Every structure is written in C-alpha cells, then in structure tokens.
Amino acid sequence: MPLVSRLLAALTLLCVPLFSANVSAAPVPIETFFENATMSGATMSPDGHFVAIRLASKANDGRAVLAVLDLETMTPKPVASFDGYDVGMFHWVNDKRLVFNLTDLRIPPGDWANSLAPGLFAVNRDGSDFRRLVARDYRYLKLGGDDEQVLPWNTFFAGTTAEQDSNDVFVEKVEGYGKHVDTYSELERLNTVTGRIKVLDIPIYSTKWLVDREGVPRIAQSHRGKMVELRYNDPATGQWRKFAEFEELSDNAFWPLHYAEDGTLYVQSANGKDKTTVYRYDLAHNALLPEPVAYSENFDIFPTLILNHGKLLGMRYQLDGEITQWFDADMAALQKEVDVRLQTTTNRLEPPRRPETPYIVIEAFSDVQPSIFLLYNRETKKLVKLGSSHPAVDPKQMGHKDIVRYQARDGLIVPAYITMPRGPAGKNLPMVVLVHGGPFVRGGYWRWNPEAEFLASRGYVVLEPEFRGSEGFGSKHFKAGWKQWGLAMQDDVADGVKWAIAQGIADPKRICIGGASYGGYATLMGLINDPDLYRCGFEWVGVTDIDLMYSVSWSDFSDSWKQYGMPIIIGDREKDAAQLKATSPIEQAARIKQPLLMAYGGVDERVPKIHGEKFYDSVRKTNSDVEWIVYPEEGHGWKLVEDKVDFWSHVEKFLARNIGAPTVVDSTAGAMVTGRP
Fold first, then answer.
1. CB neighbours (10 Å) of residue 353?
2. Is the pLDDT assigned to residue 184 strictly greater than 60?
3. End-to-end distance of the chain based on CA atoms, in angstroms?
4. Angle, in degrees to the nearest 10, between helices 641-658 and 450-457
5. Which of 368, 427, 465, 586 is most buried (most C-beta within 10 Å)?
6. 17 or 230, which is more confident?
7. Long-range CB pairs of 309-313, under 8 A, 24+ apart, other chains included
8. What pLDDT sits at residue 126?
9. How far is Cα 195 from Cα 132, in angstroms, rounded to an integer?
10. How many of the other CB atoms lie within 10 Å of CB of 225?
11. What angle do CA 96, 382, 350 make, to 5 degrees?
C-alpha cells in the first residue's frame, strides 16, 4: 500500500500525557480554529488488545490515515494511507480485520465532476491482506477477467454483523443514487476476505432495514413519493407483511430503530404528543406501547443506539447537552466512574465487546474543549490520552456556551445558544447573530464550534437562535416554521437580538447578522426587515431567490422533495407564489443599505452560484459597500483550510470595520485586550 512506510513519524502524537495546555500570545490564530482534525476517531478491537485510530499524517500531506495501536507495547502501526485521499469511516470486522472507505476532505460536497464514490476496502490490523471490495469510479463496470471481485461504485457499507468471528459486513447497493429520483437499495452480505456476496431477502424499493442477531432482515422501510411503508419478516411464517403505512410528514409517522432479540421493535415517534422520543412497538398486535423508553419535556429525542453483538446497551441523545442513557447496569456504573474523573467534559464511552476486556476508549469534549480521545483501564483506573482533534486549541482561551430561552413576539419560547468572549463578564458588547442553515434542522449543540469560538476570541458575543422550524424542540416548534421563510422565522431571530439588548449583553449599535445557506437568506432578509437592528451582514452560499430552488435544473434537490416536501414546508410554487416572491431577497435588494459581505462556491449544487450573482448584480446598483467573494473550487460550504482561513479573515476585517474595534482574548492571562485585529 502506498506511503505506509512514511507514516511512522506522524504517529508520535499517540500516548502523550493526559493534561497539556498551549500557551501563546493573543489573538489565537485563525488557523487554530479551522485546521482539519489531527485525530478524528478511535475504536477498540473486539478482543480489547488494539485500538484503530484515524489521524492526519504530516508525512502524507496532512491526509487522514488509518493506524492501529497495540495496547501491549503501546506501539502504533500504520495500516492504510493513500496519496490524495483521506480515510473516511472505519470499523472492526473481527479481532484482526478492519473495513474502511475513502473520502477527499479537500473536495466540496456536491462536486460530482471531481469527486469519487467512497468505495470500500479491508485490511488486517498488521497491514496485511489488503483488499479493494468496492470500486470508487462512477464509470466502473465489472467486465470480468479479473481475479479480484470488486463491487460497483454504488455499493455502500451498511454495518457489521453481530457474529464474533465473522469476516462479513453488510453493504447496500443503491439504485438511483446521485439522481433526482427516489432511491432504493439491495441488501447484501459481503465477505471482506474473499469479496463474495450473498444477496439478502428484502422487499423491493426498500430504503432502510433492520436485521436480527443472526443477520436475517426483519424490518424493511420503503418510500414511494410522500408515502412510507413498513414491513415485517415474521419468523413464525417466514413471510414479509406490511404492518404500517403513513405520509412522511404526518403526525402518526414512526421510524424503526432497532429489532431486539426478543422480537421487540424500538421506534422513534411522537405518538400523538408534541415531543418525539423512543417507544417499543408490539409487532404481534401492530400497536405502539404507551410508555416511552426515554422522555424530555423540552427536547425531542433522536437517539444514537449503542449496540454490542446486536444487544441494545444504551443510547445517546441531545438535550441541552449530550446524554447517555444506559440500559446495562455495568456500563451505567462505569459512566459514573469516568464522569467523576472527567468532570468538565461530556464523556462518550465505547463499551467493550467482551466482558473480560479491561480497556475502554473514551471521547471527551465540551463547549471549550474539542474532542480528545482517551484510554481507560477499568482494573488499574489508569487514564491515558491518545490524542486530540485540535491539539492547538487551549480551552482556557475559548468562550463558554450556554443555552438560553426568550419569548418571541407571539409568545413562542425560542431556545438559543449564546457564546460569551473569554474574560470578565461584559455588558453592551458587540454581537454577531449566527443563523443556522437547513433551516429545518437543529442548528447548535453544547460542544466546541470553530465559527462561534473564532468570533468570541475576537471579542464578540455570538447568539445562535433555534428559531421556529428548527428540529429537536417539539412538533409545535417545528411546524410553526412551515411556510414562514422571511416571516415569523425571521421575527424570531430579531426577537432574540432584542432580548440580548434588553439583557444588557449586546450593544444595540454594534450588531451584525451572518449565516450560511438558509442562514445567508436570513442575513439578507434581516437587513431588509430590520434595518435599524443590524449594522451589517455577512453571508455565504445563501439563498436569494426562493423560486430558484424550484426551477434551477442543476440543483441537487430531489424531484420527490420538490413535489411533496417543499410545497408543505416552504410553500407551494403556484398557490403561494405571491408570498414566496415577497419574501425573496432578490425582490428587495435595493432596500439593503448596510455594509454586506457575500461569498459563494463555484461548484455549489445545493445553492448554485447564480443565487449570489443575481443578487450581487442587483444590490450593488444601490449599495456601494458590498464585498463579493467566489471560491471556484468550493461547493455548499468551505472544505479547503486555506479557503476557510481566507473567508474568516475577510469576516474579521469586515466586522472590525463595521461594529467597532472589538476586544480579543489574551491567551496567557484570560484578560481582554482592546485593539483592531
């Protein structure tokens, strides 16, 4: 394999002391916030003797490579690296074998002309028996005459088996991938040593499935237009039967999560209530059991399940911070033990695959601490740091993030995250309102965020509203945002700013609004709707014309989303045409008089550059203070470190020029120092 011998020097960061701090002069360099992760994953082998790690290798031009750490010798060994590509996901197949795919962290999302499919590869933990399992080239066709059996590019990793010594993984062959049509999949079992496959029995047009501990598909989910069907492969009959059908956006929708060994189906559902959570479903009687498995008064619960050999041990989900709910008593006790040792971080524990394993891998993070990866010995209680995602970040220099709530003008309670600059508590500070994209997603979480922390390091308060339409705060909050682009959704952002002013946090004369995608749209509409509230605005890859989302043929929106989703959530192109036009920034560009910074990607397929070009041509006729940036190689957001640094350098200067000379953090003392960046 290429470059393996050049990796050893790059692995010296492993097994460093647990606690370390960087001390440097203020301000913190922009590169510190926007560099690629040094270490971005670690997972224990099933036998507990090795840890697979993904890390950036200086010897490989900063590309992410795969290495394996022997816990007996504490010696790392590189096992997979590639010229010009990064290791993506990786999993243990069994005690000795790993499976992984590839990505390119320097290619923007949606740049189909220059990107390749992720493929799939397998290798032993000592670097031997490397095998290509799935092709990466979109043009690839298996023509025969090749001893190596390679699957076509539209085959993707779908999970490992629950069997202890199996060489197999599950893969899905996706039909219609990358096209503007509904996709569906064929489920296969793939041997990572021989490359041979076994096609499994699932209904046609399935898009998701659950298997039992023996690897037999039991639940299948399919989408046809706006309808969702759920089917069950009943062990008693050996036949598939439909047990539920509903519209995707309906109140009675529910989504399968896990098929337990006792035949219980765990699902995600609102069950007629405001908050979505986890329930058990009785397949024998086709009924949702009334008692939730978990519940929160203020948040939806969208869990990540924690499984071991097919058994459900617990689940993680986001409330105001991340929660791990263990069903396994031993893991619950271990969580408490680790949390006592690491009291300032959220601590994700990877459960040992076998009870005799003394080691566990921990990922720890907080609002001021990017992820660090640790090894904990349950017997000796020794804690060793393996590495950090962003080792140059010193938590003492970062601003703390809290969740707050304020009342919108119509009485709706709106959550928001607020990040304060480091140093003595300040009043009447310059503030940046960051509006999240989506927009029908949850925007923020209680963990380190490079954009907010960069702005806080320059002395700005950062407010991130979870305006109506944001997911994760209940059905009422979510649906209140339907068809409210530029209307109540926009008012929620403005009401958050007024709250911060009333609290004495923000200086009403030094407030700027910014955001990407929908956040870019909201930036423009904020400048239009509330010109007295915002001194300036900066947006990147922002929507400027709602109608273009329906009409631009090269957008990556699927036909199904345009036909069934957008008319309900955003607006019907014909019936709501007047509203969509009135709430499109392109129709009101002349009303923006404030300084404006706009940036777009040259190969963006989500919000094509034409959005920015049309608006820029219009706004500059009446506004001479508009800055225009295009990154030709970028898509819907910035992937290249140099482009991230360049963009935020422009933002830094733009903010300093328009909302005053902010203060910046002195990294040695935690004090605030006045001066232009």
1. 17
2. yes
3. 46
4. 40
5. 465
6. 230
7. 309/162, 309/163, 309/164, 309/213, 309/353, 310/162, 310/212, 310/213, 310/261, 311/213, 311/260, 311/261, 312/258, 312/260, 312/266, 313/351
8. 96
9. 8
10. 12
11. 45
Model pLDDT for residues 634-650, shown as the tens digit of each residue: 989 999 999 999 999 99
Q: Do residues 383 and 341 lie in contact, with contact meaning Cβ atoms separated by under 8 Å?
A: yes
* Of 404, 306, 405, residue with least CA distance to 350: 306
Residues 374, 14 contacting (CB under 8 angstroms) = no
Q: Which amino acid is at 642?
A: E
If pLDDT is split at 50, 70 and 90, which confidence band does 18 have? very low
User: Which DSSP state fits 133?
Assistant: E
Q: How many CB atoms lie within 10 A of CB 245?
A: 12
Joined together, the tokens standing for residue 652 give 């830094």
Q: How far apart are CA 595 and CA 603, in angstroms?
A: 26
Return the half-sphere exposure (C-beta side, CA atoms, 13 A cut-off) of residue 14. Answer: 27
Strand partners, 375: 361, 384
d(CA 165, CA 45): 12
pLDDT in the model for residue 668: 46
Distance between CA atoms of residues 290 and 280, nearest Å: 8
Whether 675 has a pLDDT exceeding 50, the answer reads: no
Tell me if residue 289 falls in helix, strand or coil.
coil
Rounded-to-integer distance, Cα 465 and Cα 323, Å: 22
For residue 380, give both structure tokens.
């000796």
- The identity of residue 597, as a single letter, is L
pLDDT tens digits for range 443-481: 999 999 999 999 999 999 999 999 999 999 999 999 999
Task: State the pTM of this model.
Answer: 0.90
Tell which residue, 284, 261, 257, has the closest CA to residue 269: 257
DSSP state of 296: -
Tell me: pLDDT of 589 over 70. Answer: yes
Q: In the chain, what is the greatest distance between 2 CA atoms, to the nearest angstrom?
A: 75
512-540 pLDDT, tens digit each = 999 999 999 999 999 999 999 999 999 99
Distance between CA atoms of 526 and 491, rounded to whole angstroms? 9
At 206-252, the pLDDT tens digits run 999 999 999 999 999 998 888 999 999 999 999 999 999 998 888 88
Closest CA to 92 of 168, 30, 177, 155: 168
Side chain identity at 402, as an amino acid letter? D
The residue with tokens 């397929």 is: 605
Q: How many CB atoms lie within 10 A of CB 140?
A: 17
pLDDT exceeds cutoff 90 at 273: yes
